[in-house]
Amino acid sequence: MENTNLIISRFQHFPFHLVDPSPWPILVSFSLLNLTIGAVAYMHGFTYGGYILTLGFILTTYGMILWFRDVVIEASYLGHHTKEVKNGLMMGVILFIISEIFAFLSVFWAFFHSSLSPAIEIGGSWPPLGITPLDPFAIPLLNTFLLLSSGAFITYGHHALIAGNRKGAIDGVIITIILAVIFTALQYFEYSVAGFTMADGVYGSAFYASTGLHGFHVIIGTIFIGVALIRIINYQLTTKHHNGFESAILYWHFVDVVWLFLFVAVYFWGNT
Amino acid sequence: MGILTPLYNLPNNVLEKQRMYQNTHKPIMLRGPRSNLYVGAYTALFITGMLGTAFAATSLVRGKKTE
Predict the structure, then answer these.
(1) pTM for the whole thing?
(2) Which among A56, A123, A132, A164 would be 20 to 30 A from A87, CA to CA?
(3) How many Å apart are CA A172 and CA A145, to the nearest integer?
(4) Where does residue A162 rank: exposed (0-12), middle (13-18), buried (19+ CB within 10 A)?
(5) How far A179 CA lies from chain B's nearest CA (Å)?
(6) Smallest CA–CA separation between B14 and chain A, in Å?
(7) Scanning every residue of chain B, which has its alpha carbon at the shortest distance from the alpha carbon of A28?
(8) Closest chain A residue to B1 measured between Cα atoms?
(9) pLDDT digits (tens, 9 = 90+) for A61-118
(10) Does one domain contain both A123 and A139?
């Protein structure tokens, strides 16, 4: 793979990125206002609430795409992502993942709060009386293998990229995405055939809040890896300079580990 | 994987793009070849969205639901 790193030190005598004025922070903030006001209007049955909510969703997503497009240009074509800038970006990603760990911790807390000493109102047992839980050794075990395999393939793709093996990098990342999509499809299938809903007491709430939050993270992670794939195909990621891809890998392994905890606690221990 | 061969052999345009993006002092969001279209479409949607937000906020304050 061709080394396309710019020599920014010829033009500036410090390693930091003084960002250009950008409209995206304020525009995306107002798009989020549109999204939240639209959501409130829709959920309370106000006129055109659904349209305003849809517009808010499109506007937020579109704004994020244009914002990230600028970041990619700064990284790959303007040479602003020096070693020091990469260090700052990676620290940001690590802090973000730590905040995610605490988000999942709160959901697990809710699950264990209700399941370790089940209230008398749900029969004093977990799973509650009347709930038929899912078999952990059917789709959930298959999904465990799928996610663990995807973790192995993304590592293969990462090492292929570092070794300058373009074909291996593209293959590894594409197989990862295929496995991730199969995982999401199987989760959707399992939700559609499950014998309980989110409204079926604390069991349904804890089950869908935890596995649903994880499923949402899998979808985001798949998009994250998809963006890295496009950037590999476009030669934007080099053997030594692929911060976005490394962030996606870190995020994917985090999602992987959360699934292992979910499988052991919610699917296996919580169902037996 | 044979089906992916065209992807492996795509031409590398990074150097041309580096020259193109560095050869202008426009705001970064307007430097690409189709940037005006993308940003223009976003601006149009944004104005519509803000009008919708103002309408929804007014409806929420007045408490006027679907008739």
Answers:
(1) 0.91
(2) A164
(3) 16
(4) middle
(5) 16
(6) 7
(7) B46
(8) A171
(9) 999 999 999 999 999 999 899 999 999 999 999 999 999 999 999 999 999 999 999 9
(10) yes
